[in-house]
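pinging the channel bc i need a second pair of eyes. not urgent but kinda urgent?? the chain im working w is below, pasted from the shared doc
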Amino acid sequence: MKNIMSTEKLIIITGTPATGKSTIAKVLTKRLGYELIDVKKITKDKEVDVLKLRRKLLQIIKEKNKNGKDIIIENHLLCEISLPANIVFVLRTEPGLLKRRMQKRGYSNQKIDDNLLCEMLDYCTQKALDNYKSKIYDIDTGKRNIESSIKFMLDIIKGKIKKSDKIDFTKQLKKYTKG
């Protein structure tokens, strides 16, 4: 793929639902003076064709780059596609906390189970590693509040920190699959 990026920056924020993507993306966008692309506003359907989504996002990125815009894009589906990102943040949350957040949002039991398994299996990080050549960072939003998560991310963006959080939910997976 031809690189459509010039000097503009593109930051991806992805992760399973209820990890804090939308909230963090809004605050980080304001702090950096970037423009936010909320994928939920582009995808109205429950079933999303990720190839069409990728083409649409590439068009939007190209248009924003013409105007010299730095961009943050957030959505759980972004780990499934490849975009010309400089940094990819995969937000992660301890499964028990994630379950409570999803229950509070009224998710169905099936959707909760599916997303908890994705989180415990490290699905979004593994897919991001497959799809992105850029630097990928796991951020544990369950250990930090919004402000400290954003500070950690800003330190990564500025090059002050060069490594991800160490996150391993395999113990919860073992309990979950036995139960």
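so Residues 1-7 have pLDDT under 50 and may be disordered. and The chain has eight helices and five strands. — does that match what u expected or am i reading it wrong
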